[in-house]
Amino acid sequence: MCPSRRKGTAVLSTVIAKISARLLPLLFLLYFVNFLDRVNVGYAALQMNADLGFTPDVYGLAAGIFFLGYFFFEIPSNWMSTRVGARIWLARITISWGIVACLMAFVRNPVTFFALRFLLGVAEAGFVPALLLYVSTWFPLASRANAVAKLWTSTALALVLGGPLSALLLSIGGPLHGWQWMFVLEGIPSVLLGFVVLGSLPDDVRGAQWLTAGERATLGAALAQDDADTKGAAVADFREALLRPIVWGYAITYFCLGIGFFGITFWLPQIVKQLSGLNAVQTSLLSAVPFVFAAAAMLYVGARSDRSRERRGVFVTGCLIGAAGVFGSAMTGNPWASLTLLTIGAMGIWSVVAIFWSSASGRLTGTGTAGGLALINSIGGLGGFTGPYMIGLVRGATHSFAPALVAIAFALVVCSALAAAMMRGPDTAARAVTTPA
User: Cα dihedral angle (411, 417, 419, 422), rounded to 10 degrees?
Assistant: First the structure.
């Protein structure tokens, strides 16, 4: 590498490090509370289902119906983010979902359960694409998988800390049940964070006064180079992105991945309870273990993928590992072996999420990024509906999780096959210029 290029790479690495230190902690916290408010119903169910007499199929439908609200309002929401700006729209989404998350404490019957979960999906619609859109305006493609991986570990951390936190909140007494305290006390921070986002996140690179003029120019040049490299190969228009076969291919792939990701997420506490026979508090603590390893796998694989500039092979391998772990868990009769294999399955599933989004965003540019990511996430959200609902139906009919886990493993195999076929050709998310992980 010539001296001038080495110098340019070093400057860009410094800029990326400054951006990461400045923006990622708040974005990480934002996604952490988002995911916690989305999935804490899995811990609440350990008490709430008994208190209110909810059957497995009622819980499974309510857990999944969230994604129907997400599906119907995802694309309109992300279209709005291109009009008012990702920062303002992220703040609006955060405040809205925090309010609805608190209202979950007032669930009284299946109708209010379904309605509030659907409304929570409506409130959160557009959050993930708006977050990814915001990240894409700051991180060049060569360093994006690592940045996204750091953000997405918040989903695993929400489940890691969600277990002990929920165990603590479930034990609170007083005028409310423990599960009601949990919804209220985990929803309030989201409302407060929405105002923090509104007041502290810069809209774009031009508003980053904590970068020097030279650093802003270096970053702008890198992002412009990405646009030049993907010109012709990437979808640049919002409406066009909704029609492109490659975008639909990513959407269907994410649908299959979502069946495994959200099926495990929403049902793991109850799977662990059935396997272990522990009480609600002990189950909440033990349920955190698989996600400790999932978070580590996500960080390691995302950094490795950026260094090697490899997406397709890593994604396919991770999906197959996830499928093998989940399938093995269904086949063994030993509860501790089953939990170990579920942990391996979670590691495989979580390790590929950041790679998926980095690869998908590399196929999009301009307003096509907003439209394409919204479509992918909305279709993927239907996988989030299918997985939890399917497990609830199977669990109610068979009193066993094993058949549902086999179905999840099959979905992950299909996901790997789709990715192997779709991610062929030049990977726009893996350019020759790289930044340290």
Answer: -130
In tens, the pLDDT along 211-261 reads: 888 888 888 888 888 777 666 555 667 777 777 888 899 999 999 999 998
Contact (Cβ atoms closer than 8 angstroms) between residue 372 and residue 241 = yes
Q: What is the pTM of this model?
A: 0.74
**HSE, side-chain direction, 13 A CA sphere, residue 158:** 25
Question: CB count, 10 Å around CB of 427?
Answer: 17
- Domain 7-204+214-422, CATH number (from 3.40.50.20, 3.30.450.40, 3.40.1490.10, 1.20.1250.20): 1.20.1250.20
| Long-range contact pairs involving 394-400 (C-beta distance under 8 Å, separation at least 24) | 395/56, 395/57, 395/60, 395/267, 395/270, 396/55, 396/56, 396/57, 396/60
* HSE-up (13 A, CA, CB side) for residue 378: 23
Residue type, 208: A
CB 392 within 8 A of CB 57: yes
